[in-house]
Amino acid sequence: MKHADYVTSIAKSARVHNYHFGAIVFAGREVVSTGWCQAKTHPQQARFMRFAAEHKRNNSYLHAEVHALISARWDVNGYDMAIARWSEDKLKTSRPCPACHQAMVVAGIRRVWYWDESTEDWEYDKI
User: What angle is formed at CA 43 by the lines to CA 126 and CA 85, rounded to 5 degrees?
Assistant: First the structure.
């Protein structure tokens, strides 16, 4: 995955409630937006958490994926997103939660790239 090092470095530097997540929105080689988990809340995060009622955890902070989407300065319809989670000095599976997946659907993200521990490689899902 083209932007693996960049999104991993964002995840390493972000830390909220012992979570180290980073996200980028990109088109080809151009990174158009970045995001990381944050201790603050945001109305958009609350909106998408309501869409994902099956998500049982009480995440009262802004997720990296939603932060990257709201930080974009233009329409990201058709763009890709990459997500990384850093823990115990290595990449961990970083598949998006249901709320963040819904946010990507609304924004028109084409594919989401994430690290998968079972394959030890970057995988993607079409949104």
Answer: 45
Task: Measure the CA angle with vertex 119, ends 85 and 15; round to 5°.
Answer: 5
Report DSSP state, residue 72: -
Largest Cα–Cα separation, the chain: 36
Tokens of 113: 């790239």
Q: Which of 108, 50, 119 is nearest to 78 (CA)?
A: 108
Please say if the pLDDT value at position 52 is more than 70: no
Rounded Cα distance between 100 and 107, Å, is 10
Give yes or no for a contact between 75 and 106, defined as CB atoms under 8 angstroms apart.
no
| Average pLDDT estimate for 5-30 | 92
If you average pLDDT over every residue of the chain, what do you get? Answer: 89
Give the global pTM: 0.86
Residues 6 or more apart in contact with residue 5 via CB below 8 angstroms: none
108: region left, alpha or beta (phi > 0 left; psi from -120 to 50 alpha):
left
Nearest in space to 96 (alpha carbons), one of 60, 64, 54: 64
Pairing verdict, β 90-92 and 80-87: antiparallel
